[in-house]
Amino acid sequence: MSTLLNVENLGIQFGGLKAVQNVNMYMNRGELIGLIGPNGAGKTTAFNMLTGVYAPTEGTITFNGKQIQGLSPYKVTRGGISRTFQNIRLFKELSVLDNVKVANHSLANHNILTSILRLRKHFNGEEKMEQQSLAFLKIFGLDIYKDELAKNLPYGMQRRLEIARALAAGPKLLLLDEPAAGMNPQETHELMRLIAFIRKEFNLTILLIEHDMQLVMGICERIYVLDHGQLIADGTPAEIRANPKVIEAYLGEEVAD
Amino acid sequence: MKKSKVFWGYAVIALVLYVVVQVLISTGALNLYYQNMLITMCINIMLAVSLHIVIGITGQFSIGHAGFLAVGAYISGIFTMNLGMPFPIAILAGSAVAMLAGLLVGIPTLRLKGDYLAIATLGFAEIIRIIFLNIDYVGGAAGMLVDYQTNWTYAFVGVAITILVISNFTNSRHGRACISIREDEIAADSMGINTTYYKVVAFAIGSFFAGLAGAIYAHNFYFIQPTTFGFLKSFDILIIVVLGGLGSLSGSVIAAIFLTIVSTYLQGFPETRMIIYSLVLILVMLYRPTGLMGTKEMTDLFKFSKKGVTKA
Amino acid sequence: MEWIQQLVNGISLGSIYALIALGYTMVYGIIKLINFAHGDVFMLGAFIGFYAIVRWDMHFILALLLAMVLCAVIGVIIERVAYKRLRNATRIAALITAIGVSLLIEYTVIFFRVRGASPEAYPEVLKNKTIDILGVQISTQSIFILTVSIVLMVLLQFIVHQTKIGKAMRAVSHDADAARLMGINVDNTISATFAIGSALAGAAGVIFGIYYTRIDPLMGILPGLKAFVAAVLGGIGIIPGAMVGGLVLGVVETVVSALGYSLWRDAAAFVILIFILILRPAGIFGKNTREKV
């Protein structure tokens, strides 16, 4: 098994505030890892550093053998890491299909001149994007809504579309930021099946931020716990459940005793 | 409707339009007043559509478009008047240099958003205007004499190419990339779109065609001077795009046609014209910010699809 | 002592820019809007002062006060009629509307004036003597401008830091929702901000008329934009920043002109703007804020 992602001593400082410090993580190919912690622990900040939205002030991120810390987000994505957002960031005025096509963009190669002159290569390229994007929508049951504007979809479908879109970028590593937020138990169960399915189908390695413990304990093989920007525990779900530091972080000192 | 059928449909309509007007002009049925109005319409359409791709499609709030118009006008004027080049070469030169100006403006302002970008582009346009104001080679404040070389053919071809290129760009993965930048730049970046590249491309295309419009404009009015290319001109173009709907190419075209007619009839009453224009701007923003067409195109209205909610 | 004379000229001009810039910065600080029409309030102030002095024989100090009061009212009207509805709209929509309001004011004035767009000339209300201070010739007009400007800026600082309304303004500019929850009437606070900013612009208009004498309906555009540059230079939303930015801009412009490049003086402001936006968008006193993802 090879290490796909290796994070060493990762940290970022905003002004005087160390939002994240001394984080060490690794992920092997095919693993499903959870990243949990109380609100404000720095989980999304960590995601942002992994995807290039923020440049870390210290530490390294090695993905697939290459160091990627500080790279622009689009380069990170083209290198094989894709993500969803905590507060859904769909392209509201674009259709469901177009949203997915945008992620598919970097896999196409007909250039601007080709498109302007409407050469054969343009039509072939566009057709391929259409087919590939539709295929992704089908998996998520969204193909019947392909022409609907993204902003008109109900919440649960928007979340699914975000995942579909992230997948269309062709990642090896998928980062999901609170995919179950706002979902009821039944929807969460559906989501768990979906995640298991795409993991197998697309050979993905998945890193998951979640607050829903049923989801996390249910599908994650290993879990990292962040609190106040630092790693306080890591291990299997069973180990984490029993870890007093974790309990303390979530519920406060008194309960841990 | 199959896409190619739609295209040929428009091509035929365009050809018919061109021929009809050309015949009317040649037989003298259309007098100079209307000829001029039609050519001005073409210029305004080119300006509006070229601004549309920057603001409406890519969401880059550039309100200094008159600067690129000025560059196209002056450079093409220099090519015909001072270098004795044929008109088509001058047009190409004007457009190319305008595109360079667009890169000069677009690249440094990449990190700016919203209001700040707007003011920066306004600032750049003013700097361009002041540069031309201070160069005696192009006549300085008095302006520059430019031969009358524009005719219906040049104007029409100019508009046709502008609309075709920008429309083709928009309806491709590149246009989608630009729209994604408009909708959510961080998400676009995270989905693999090189936002820097596309923002610059949008500026380049927009300024190229503004330069094209400038070349046609310069050779239509006998002389050009820096005062015509101030922010009022930039606002004029902005008003057309806003009225048409930020994000709709057909909206820009329709609004350009409509406002050219209004403008021509109000030629003798510049204050009234400006009062009407400013009221249009305010009322549209307050009561119908999506403009006439929102982000829809004429082709959308002809599609019989089962879309859920059709936005008015 | 030629350069000191230029420095004084620069500071005088800069004070006018500063007074206008204060209005921009306060409004931007509180509702994140570039009030494009602000330069035109400056113009209206100049005209109100003109008519007060010429038609109603007012003393110029009274005319100044009248212009300030009327401009305050005008500022509030503009805010209530045009900008209030757009509080939750995109910044672009608000900016476009502001451009519309600016154009509307300018061309309505031209439309209704008998003399259209032609300029007017302020009569000489302040005998321009030169006083010798420490070997430097300073005109009484410069002293007037500086005095009035300093008085107004000190007054503003007092209002912002020592009064309830000032506290409310600062609170709303930090977090409007939190302020509302604390019982602050956000609407009135915003209107008050516009009123104060517009009053200052009106004062600047009268001062401009007295110093430069020539006024016309389109006089607000360029000073308005330059004052905005000054506000950005100092750090948009920061009041001392607007004062410093205005003074710096006035001095730079005067120096450029004095060095013989008078045709380029207008460009100076825009060149400064480009540099600031690209190198240090937060301005002299500003802090960088990061977008939360």
Strand numbers in spatial order across the main sheet of chain B: 1-2
Low-confidence stretches of chain B: 304-312
Structural class by SSE content of chain B: mainly alpha
Strand content of chain A: 15-25%
> What structural class is derived from the secondary structure elements of chain A?
alpha/beta
Tell me how many strands of chain B there are: 2
Give the DSSP E fraction of chain B (strand runs of 2 or more residues): under 5%
N-to-C order of helices and strands of chain B: HHHHHEHHHHEHHHH
Mean pLDDT of chain B: 88
3D architecture notes:
The complex is a heterotrimer of chains A (257), B (312) and C (293). Chain A is α/β, with parallel strands linked by helices and 257 residues long. Chain A is built from eleven helices and ten strands. Chain B has a domain at 42-246. In chain B, helix 2 packs parallel to helix 6 (152-170), helix 2 (32-57) crosses helix 10 and helix 3 packs parallel to helix 5 (114-133). Chain B is globular, with a radius of gyration of 19 Å. The two termini of chain B are 22 Å apart. Mean pLDDT of chain B is 88; it is low at 304-312. Chain C has eleven helices and four strands. The radius of gyration of chain C is 19 Å and the shape is globular. At the A-B interface, helix 2, helix 3, helix 4 and helix 5 of A face helix 6, helix 7, helix 8 and helix 9 of B.
Structure, briefly:
By secondary structure, chain B is mainly alpha-helical.
Q: Layout of helices and strands, plus pairs?
A:
The complex is a heterotrimer of chains A (257), B (312) and C (293).
Chain A (H helix, E strand, L loop, with lengths): L2 E12 L2 E12 L3 E5 L6 H8 L7 E6 L2 E2 L5 H7 L1 E3 L12 H9 L7 H5 L3 H20 L15 H14 L4 E5 L7 H17 L3 E5 L3 H7 L2 E6 L2 E6 L1 H6 L1 H8 L1 H4 L1
Helix pairs in contact in A: 3-5, 3-6, 5-6
Chain B lengths: L2 H24 L5 H26 L7 H18 L4 H20 L7 H20 L10 E2 L6 H19 L2 H11 L1 H6 L4 H24 L4 E2 L6 H14 L4 H17 L4 H18 L10 H5 L10
Helix pairs in contact in B: 1-6, 2-6, 2-9, 2-10, 2-11, 3-4, 3-5, 3-9, 4-9, 6-9, 7-9, 10-11, 10-12
Chain C lengths: L1 H30 L6 H17 L5 H24 L7 H22 L7 E2 L8 E4 L2 E4 H23 L1 H11 L1 H6 L4 H27 L1 E2 L5 H14 L4 H20 L6 H15 L14
